Structures are given as C-alpha cells and as structure tokens.
Amino acid sequence: MRRLAFLMRPGWIALGLVVIAFTYLCFTVLAPWQLGKNTKTSRENRQIDHSLNTPPVPLTTLLPQQDSSAPDSQWRRVTTTGHYLPGGQVVARLRVVAGDQAFEVLAPFAVDDGPTVLVDRGFVRPEPGSHVPAFARPPEQTVTITGRLRDSEPVVPGKKPFTRDGFRQVYSINTGQISALTGVPLTGSYLQLVEDQPGGLGLLGVPHLDSGPFLSYGIQWISFGILAPIGLGYFVYAEMRARRRETPVAKPADKPMSVDEKLADRYGRRR
Question: Per the domain annotation, does 127 fall within a domain?
C-alpha cells in the first residue's frame, strides 16, 4: 500500500481526472460527432448519386400535401406546373457560392392542384456594402419548372429576419420561419432550380461526391480514448518500478550464535 500512496498526491489525482474526462469526451462527444458527420455526408452522397442517374418525377408524388416533407429524397429531381408568388419573395443572405459571397433568392411557388413550395431561384452577387442588387422578377404566367428537393435548414440562433433594400432577408432557408415571415404556407422541403428554368437566376450546383475525413477522424478519437487510460497505467507502472529501485533493501539481522559456536570462536582465537 505504501508503494501506491503516491497516487493520492494532488498531481496524480489531477492527471487521473484529466484522463478520465478526456476519455469520456472521446467516446461520448468527439467520436460520435465525427462519425455522425460521416453518416450524414455518406447519406447525402447516395442521394446525389441517385438524383443524377434518375429521371425527374412529379413533385406531388413526394410532396402530396401542404405539410409534406421528403428528407429521404433530398436532391431528387422533380418537375411541377404552377405559378410564382412574387409577393412572398425573400432573400437569404451570407451565402457562399463558388467561394464568393452571394444572396439566394427565394420565392413561393403555387403548384396546380397541389401544395405551395418554396423555390430557390438561384443566386445574385451583392453590391458594395452587402446591398441586394437588382434582379429579374419571376414570370407571372403559369410555368413548368424542374428542380431538386432540399431539406429545410435549421434557424441560425440569434439571427432574426429583417428588411433591407426593400427585401425581407433571412440567414437560413428554413421553410417554417419563411412561412411565418411571409404568411404563405409552405411544404417542409423546398426546391432548388436546375439550369435553364423559368425564373432561374445564377445556377446553384450540387456538392462534390466526397465523404471527407470524418470517418478517419472518428476512428482517431476512439483510438485516443483507448490509449489515454493505457498511457496513464503505463506511467503508474513506471513510477512504481522507479520507486522500487530507489527503496533501500534492509539487511538481514545477524543470527545469534549458539553456545557451541561461541566456545569454538573463543578457543579458536586463542590458538
């Protein structure tokens, strides 16, 4: 027990707590975070690949009702006929397209005999001072459009919609927030126009099919979580060995001599 008493010193206690906390974070936060991103990216890559190799389907097959959404069909190409509602137009700010800042122009689209869906018409570049430039209005007549289904984005915390340059502006494409802002009911998923569509602006492409480093990062955090306690155990073992070498070995006590040994020793010396 004396050899292990050094573990109760404040320095070793602090080191043990740090290792325990680090291991806990590796297995419960850091590794799941990276593995979750890998799962999301892999899922999106499969959806994009399916979209590129599948012909468009009618929008109402995936969004039949006003409260419909299609998270399992993101990026799927759909086609529909209806008309734009320019009065509900909104601009999404602080977007990045091809490495440069952009606005994305959003407008509700009333589907004939179907729901109203939010349409991302494409992007425009900001003017100096981050002002919204002039851009073409969407057509007023009935048109047929083709686009890709997209999932509604989460609302950016602390960033509320506002009006500037005559346009209502938002920080994310969240159909619920935009519906409340414009008063126009919208489906849960929205539509991103493909090339050469009525009402289209700057074309928004699809992401590259790349899974990224998230899987390897997740495995690394798991490895770190395993190695940290092993490393602590090795340091404890090395410290114990060092202390064992430094501890002086007690010499055995002299064995008392018997009477015969004392006599032999005495007379032996006289001779």
Answer: yes
Measured CA distances, 159 to 13, 155, 156, 233 (Å): 44, 8, 6, 48
pLDDT, one tens digit per residue, over 13-70 is 777 788 888 888 888 887 787 777 776 777 776 766 766 778 899 999 999 999 999 9
Rounded Cα gap, residues 190 and 148, in angstroms:
8
> What is the residue range of 93's domain?
57-193
**Which residue, chain included where needed, has tokens 């060092």?**
242
Contact status, residue 265 vs residue 257, Cβ threshold 8 Å: yes
| Amino acid making up residue 243 | R
Residues in CB range of 54: below 8 A, 6 or more apart: 76, 77
First-to-last alpha carbon distance for the chain, in angstroms, is 53
- Taking phi over 0 as left and psi of -120 to 50 as alpha, with beta for the rest, 269 belongs to alpha
Alpha-carbon distance of 12 to 115, in angstroms, equals 65
Give the phi and the psi of residue 202 in degrees, each rounded to 5: -65, 130
For residues 84 and 209, give the distance between their C-alpha atoms in angstroms, rounded to a whole number.
32
> Quick check: is 176 in a domain?
yes
pTM: 0.65
Q: How many domains does the chain have?
A: 1
Token pair for residue 210? Answer: 């790349």
Residues 6+ apart with CB under 8 A from 122: 104, 105, 193, 200, 201, 202, 203, 204
Position 170 in a domain: yes
49, part of any domain:
no
Burial of 50 (0-12, 13-18, 19+ CB in 10 A): middle
Backbone angles phi, psi at 63, to 5 degrees: -125, 75
